Amino acid sequence: MSQNVVELCVLLARDIYGEVSSRVVSVLLESGRLTVVQLVRELKLPEKIVKQTLAVLIQQHLVVHFAHLETGQEVVYYECEWTQVYGLLRAGRIIRAVEDRFGSNGALIVSNLLQLGHARVSDFLAAYGTSTKKSKATVNGKSNVPVIDDESPITSIEILKSVMAEMMKERFLVQVQEHHMHIRTDTRNTLRAQLTSQLRKSQLSESKLGKEVDRQMKIRMRELADGDTSQHAGMKRKAVSASKPRSKKRQKVSIYDLIEQEEEEWEINEDIVLRINHEKFSVLFRNAELVSLAKSRHGKISSLVYAEFLKRLEEKYFRCRELYPGDGDEEDDPNKRIKLSVLELSKTFNKEIDLENSIVAAPHPHKRKARKRGYSDAEDEDESRSNGYGKKVNGKGKRGQSKTDDDGDDDDDDDDISDLEEPYDDDEEGIDAENRKKKIRMELLKQHMQLLAEDSWKFVRLESNRGLGEWSVNYKELGKLMRQLELEKVVEETFGEMGLRLLRIIKDKGKLEEKQIASIALLKQKEIRSILTGLQENGYLHLQEVPKTSIPQISRTYFLWFHDPDRAIQSLVTDTYKAMSRVIQRTNVERAKRSSLLEKWERSDVQANVEEYLTTSEKRELEIWLSREEKLLGQLMRLDRTMMILRDF
Amino acid sequence: MAAQPSQSSIDAMARAVYEQCLQAPSDYLFSVSELQDLVPGKNNLELTQKVLNELLRTRSLSALTRGSQTVFRSVPKDFAEKVKNMTADEEMLYGYIQESAREGIWTKQLKMKSNMHSTAVNKALKGLERKKYIKSIKSVNHPARNIYMLYELTPSIEVTGGPWFTDSELDKEFVNELLTAITKFMISKSFPKLSTRGAMGSFPPGHTGYPTLNQVYLWVKSSNLTEVDLAEADIRSLLDVLVYDGKIERVVGDTAYRAVRRPDSINGFAESPCGRCPVFALCKEGGPVSASNCVYFEDWLNA
After folding, report:
1. How far apart are the two ends of chain B, measured CA to CA in Å?
2. Which structural domain range is residue B279 located in?
3. B147: pLDDT confidence band, cut at 50, 70 and 90?
């Protein structure tokens, strides 16, 4: 863990939880696990305050603990969970994502849970129902236990519960389990010790025992991390004595859909404690990032198809990176890969695109598509020209576009032709237009998937031809690609086009001498030298010396440049952490510069009457501050986006 | 023996022998007996000797050894003409330079081969250069070396570095112009033209109409972009560079190329003041450079 992360985490903790918390975080991050006694000694603070602070931090999942038996006594160690501290940055992003998907109720639940760390469902609802009650049966009564705003729009508890259940089903919320509160290493060690003593009874040889323990460890750790994945985890049957209107509703539903009826009978178990599942949100953010990549390469429509496709796969992915990479990966076994057919996709996609088109207000639902197909018309026309059969419907009015292609495109398959005719033939066909429309849509979907698969970035991968093609996503490779792209962007920004060219050449070719690089890049050796050393300084390139003779001599040595993606990314990650710290520090500096003004502004009487109490110059200064703060925070979020790609995806 | 009249007759005889030697293939090697046959006064050893001496003196023949035998080779007329104007040193160096053909030869190597003192070599080279028998060229691989080559030859590609080099310097403008032109060409061929501006379309999957190497080559040829004679391999290296630039990609089983759209998002680090900061490594809270006294942040905030 680099110094830069520590710096950033301490800054974040100070911003949100104040000076004392940040000092606890800082000491724990710098010294590793500590007992309360050690902490008190390090911090030189009263034990009471340290304990209170620890309680808050534990509630927020920022600090985890574990009790060890040492010389007959139980000693509790505390450790700072820095990923959680960093996760504080994501709050805004998470709330926005939830609002998009679950509406304002979801956002409300999530923002409260983010403040609380975790909460029991019943407590949460109780606080909501009787909003005057401040304490929420959380660990302590410290001032930073948030109060749910009295003014918040009243939503029925039933609705909140169903939204919560929905979010739990999609794993955005998870049940807090014991191991969440414990130090991970200790959890793992205890588990290993348990397994070993269990298996030792089976009298395996030492090496076999080790392997067996490893194997079972992986299964058990995965189970722990995944939690209860059964359908009704964290749910309970609704009380039989349901009120009348509800049972009516149930009956109604049951007429249409048996499954839905069954779901109706379940509701969230109010006794469970919930927390935010950051892992799942990363999956969500990764998909969004991939969609925007697809959009930049293939335009909006393809990206919409991709977005829907990824969304359908989403529930199968619990986290971005495997717990045990390279072990039982989906990637290794084609049968284990998570795939979805176009047929399946079209079931949910239909509605989506109609929605989209209605917002765009295109009179013809196919207009965009039809236009998109315009160019393939050109292709087709070429084909028809070369093949000698013309097409009445398409042949006219499209000539202007047919210039794009100079050699006949013979590989256009027949599917293309049939669906190209569709948009224009509808009127003539009439009767089974509806059916054909469906067929066209599916064919179009398939084409978009093919486009995405054909891209050298391999957005999707064809698995089989079932259901108009089954597709999967190789997240591992795409993650690598996205990281590389980020790195390339940085290199291009800092070293210009030449830097990018050099980096990509070296990455492609492996180890190269300066002279060879220059001749491939068609650049002067003198010019590239400074760029290469610059890239080396930033940790994106490395040098390998190979002496020609047994006695190393500089003049008789090959100097080979090479690029190690992992090291390069790592160094960019560290730099990004540092940049994030600087942004926060600068924000604090800017705030401190105007502290008296801001204090005045924050007074409630001033807030109530800004016009009167603030002078013109103060107002101007305030404006500057607000715009600067916004700029800095925006930058912080963009840095976080880079960080997500580099570290999490 | 009447030596007096024979001097002119020897000259004439020598000329006759030389003419006859020239009839043979240029690299034909004459033995002494063969030449003896050519000299009129049959088997007159003394006369043959004189004639040969005369021929060697005028550099019309050059003596070589094959095994233990001495053999002779005729020297072409124009060369013989030149050689007449040369000193012995010059002639020797000329020979080596001639051998090196279109590759040229480095002065250091000349010294080694000729075993001459460097001032003598330099003097001889100067003389040859002044007479326009040889010229100095620059090699791309060894720009610092003094390399000489016969005046009438053009340096080989290995020496000049190929079409990208002008005066052994890489012609950056030339390369960039070609790259830009080819990029434009690739873009025009890679995306369908749509009726609406700004809309993004793609060719259908399986499209094979993307330009191949040969098509790009032919387009460059016909477009009058350059007078330089570019080979298909040269175009390939240009396309490779574009691939490395991330502007185009290989498609259809690597046989064709197409332009790609570049993602427009900016990296959060690169655009932040720290991403461009020259003293980023020194930046530390409480240090000489820190977030509080950072000028780059101030500029960025004011921007």
Report:
1. 106
2. 269-302
3. confident
Are B67 and B112 in contact by the 8 Å Cβ rule? The answer is no
Q: Using a CB-CB distance cutoff of 8 angstroms, which residues of chain A are in contact with residue B244?
A: 500-501, 504-505, 508, 520-521
Q: What percent of chain A clears pLDDT 90, i.e. is strictly above it? A: 31
User: Contact at 8 Å (CB) between A81 and A28?
Assistant: no
Q: Tell me: pLDDT of B186 over 80.
A: yes
Owner of token pair 């040229």? B104
Residues A477, A479: Cα–Cα separation, whole Å = 5
A306 close to A459: Cβ distance less than 8 angstroms: yes
B 43-62 residues with CB < 8 A to A: none
- The residues facing B126 across adjacent strands are none
Q: Which residues of A touch B273 (CB under 8 A)?
A: 582
Its pTM stands at 0.75
Starting at the earlier edge strand, list the strands of the sheet with A542-547: A512-513, A557-562, A542-547
Q: Assess B199–A contact: CB distance below 8 Å, yes or no.
A: yes
Residue A558's H or E segment, with its range, is strand A557-562
The percent of residues above 70 in pLDDT, for chain A, comes to 77
Average pLDDT of the segment spanning A165-175: 89
CB contact under 8 A, A586 and B294: yes
Q: Are residues B283 and B209 in the same domain?
A: no
Of A633, A604, A636, A599, give the one whose Cα is nearest residue A618. A599
Q: Are B180 and B247 contained in the same domain?
A: yes
> Which residues from B are below 8 Å from A299, CB to CB?
199-202
Both B176 and B162 in one domain: the answer is no
Q: Based on the number of CB atoms within 10 Å of its own CB, is A303 exposed (0-12), middle (13-18) or buried (19 or more)? A: buried
Number of domains forming the structure of chain B: 4
Per-chain mean pLDDT for chain B: 81
Give backbone dihedrals phi and psi of A391, rounded to 5 degrees, phi first.
-125, 125
Range A213-217 average pLDDT: 87
| Residue numbers in A near B276 (CB within 8 A) | 493-494
* Contact yes or no for A400/A376 (Cβ under 8 A): no
Q: A494-563 architecture in CATH?
A: Orthogonal Bundle (1.10)
Domain boundary pick from B15, B43, B75: B75
Among chain A residues, the shortest Cα distance to B169 is held by A524
Domain annotation covers residue B123: yes
Closest CA to A497 of B242, B283, B160, B292: B242
A331 confidence band (pLDDT: 50, 70, 90): low
Check pLDDT > 50 for residue B261: yes
**Are residues A305 and A344 in contact, defined by beta-carbon separation less than 8 angstroms?**
no
Please compute the mean of the pLDDT values over residues B99-114 and round it to a whole number. 83
CA B265 to chain centre: 44
Q: At the top level of CATH, which class does the domain A3-80 belong to?
A: mainly alpha
CA distance B87 to B128: 10
Contacts of A565 (CB under 8 A, 6+ apart): A480, A483, A484, A487, A507
* pLDDT of B156 over the 90 cut: no
CATH, residue B100: 1.10.10.10
Q: Do B183 and B244 sit in the same domain of this protein?
A: yes
Q: Would the pLDDT of A150 be above 60?
A: no
Q: Which of A315, A295, A297 is nearest to A305 (CA)?
A: A295
Any A CB within 8 A of B297 CB: yes
Q: In angstroms, rounded to a whole number, what is the distance separating the alpha carbons of residues A305 and A301?
A: 6
The model's confidence at residue A634, banded by pLDDT at 50, 70 and 90, is very high
